[in-house]
Design brief:
- By secondary structure, the protein is an alpha/beta fold.
- The protein folds into three domains: 252 residues, TIM Barrel; 60 residues, no CATH class; 69 residues, Arc Repressor Mutant, subunit A (Orthogonal Bundle), CATH 1.10.10.
- The strands form three sheets. It has a nine-stranded mixed β-sheet with strand order 7-8-6-5-4-3-2-1-9, sandwiched between helices. Strands 10-11-12 form a three-stranded antiparallel β-sheet, covered by helices on one side.
- Helix 3 links the parallel strand 3 and strand 4.
- Bound molecules: iron/sulfur cluster (SF4).
Length: 406
């Protein structure tokens, strides 16, 4: 059996944060109910393709999945369990915003099998939070965090952001101190990226942002401070206590199979990538087609239904016919590129033996020039059969990743 991870997109938020370009927005109760029904139909229709897969992680992302009533999240999980073989020890995460859960909702999550909570805090400074349009204060976060521990969550991630408008080293340090003192199992710390079209991007001249130098200092401080507090960095922006790395996200970086359900959700299964439509009508139409012979079941000749499996040529055809977007059957070169630039994000680096096993060629035969040059410049290092970024390499990681593109 092959391992599979499942991503479920919940595109609803109380209101839009000023820096956000994710597929999310406010919705009425009726729209939420209709969306969950569509999602359940999609999960059911798609489950036929994954009979030989074992689900090892499920991730509710968004948007703000915690806005859904717990009975809806429970219904979605039941739908997944009805259609898929879900491993008993599967990691099941839900993203949650402070102030959108009650103690009862958190207990209901645990009852339905959710065993990991990812809380979007970003900063412990209320003025910084207000400046980026977050709906919550630091004390809202503390209430949510305490309630989650009381409900029984033993695996909690906290999301932080550096480079916020008006943020200085002193306030960022305070955020790190406060969060580390809570001792969550996992911390993600990303730098703010000004995405074109967002309110923050449009009005950027009205704010003062930390400069590049400060941004770098914040990044270095994060690694140093969290290491002292018992968190090891296992990916460029992710830190965990021993054995508490996010299993779901590691599947992306290690190029494991994952199926995404919901509006705009991305998937990659056996080297085929695709996305669901981002417009609600197009997504609804796509789910409709899945249920009316546009799926793999219609591919057989004669009366016996024939199910295209992800490894079959006809699988990509089925995806296109049902209105999925950006369907891409990755070439060997594209797979190698991804293997290198995704694998190098992890501090364990890429496994050179696995490269040889997967592609029948040594990484040095394909990327000899780049590897030699980065080793000489001190951006990469070898550790046994692994090749990984050095701390100097992390500083210029985007340039290193780009060099592995054909
Ligand atoms: S809560 Fe998250 S998804 Fe929703 S608007 Fe804010 S950043 Fe975007």
């Amino acid at each position: 059996m092959r391992n599979l991870s499942i991503y479920i997109h919940i595109p609803f938020c109380v209101r839009k944060c000023l820096y956000c370009d994710f597929l999310s927005g406010p919705a009425s109760v009726g729209e939420v109910g209709n969306y969950v029904n569509l999602l359940l139909r999609e999960i059911k229709e798609q489950s036929v393709f994954y009979g030989d897969h074992r689900v090892v992680s499920i991730f509710f992302g968004g948007g703000t999945p915690s806005l859904l009533p717990a009975r809806e999240t429970g219904r979605i999980l039941e739908g997944v369990r009805d259609g898929f073989f879900v491993a008993e020890d599967a990691e099941i995460t839900i993203e949650c915003n402070p102030g959108t859960v009650t103690a009862q909702k958190l207990r209901d999550y645990i009852t339905s099998g959710i065993n990991r909570l990812s809380i979007g805090l970003q900063s412990t400074d209320d003025e910084e939070l207000a400046r980026i349009g977050r709906i919550h204060s630091y004390s809202d976060f503390l209430e949510t965090y305490t309630a989650a521990r009381e409900a029984g969550f033993r695996n909690i991630n906290i999301d932080l952001m550096a480079g916020l408008p008006g943020q200085g080293m002193a306030s960022y340090t305070k955020t790190l101190e406060r969060v580390a003192a809570l001792s969550p199992e996992h911390i993600s710390a990303y730098s703010l990226i000004l995405e074109e079209g967002t309110t923050l991007y449009v009005n950027q001249d009205a704010y003062t942002f930390p400069d590049e130098e400060e941004d770098r200092e914040m990044y270095e401080l994060t690694g140093r401070y969290l290491a002292e507090a018992g968190f090891h960095r296992y990916e460029i922006s992710n830190y965990a206590k021993e054995g508490q790395e996010c299993r779901h996200n590691k599947v992306y970086w290690r190029r494991g199979d994952y199926a995404g359900f919901g509006l705009g959700a991305s998937s990659m299964v056996q080297n085929v990538r695709w996305k669901n439509p981002e417009a609600h009508m197009a997504y609804a139409d796509c789910v409709e087609k899945m249920g009316h012979g546009g799926g793999g079941r219609a591919l057989g000749s004669g009366s016996a239904p024939c199910i295209a499996r992800p490894q079959d040529k006809s699988f990509a055809e089925m995806l296109r016919r049902t209105g999925r977007c950006e369907v891409q059957e990755l070439t060997a070169e594209e797979q190698m590129e991804e293997f290198m630039f995704l694998g190098l994000r992890l501090t364990e680096g890429v496994d050179l033996k696995a490269f040889l096993r997967n592609f029948g060629k040594a990484a040095e035969d394909i990327y000899g020039r780049q590897i030699r040059s980065f080793l000489e410049q001190g951006f990469l290092e070898r550790a046994g059969q692994r090749l990984r970024l050095t701390s100097r390499g992390i500083d210029v990681s985007n340039a290193v990743f780009a060099a592995f593109l054909f």
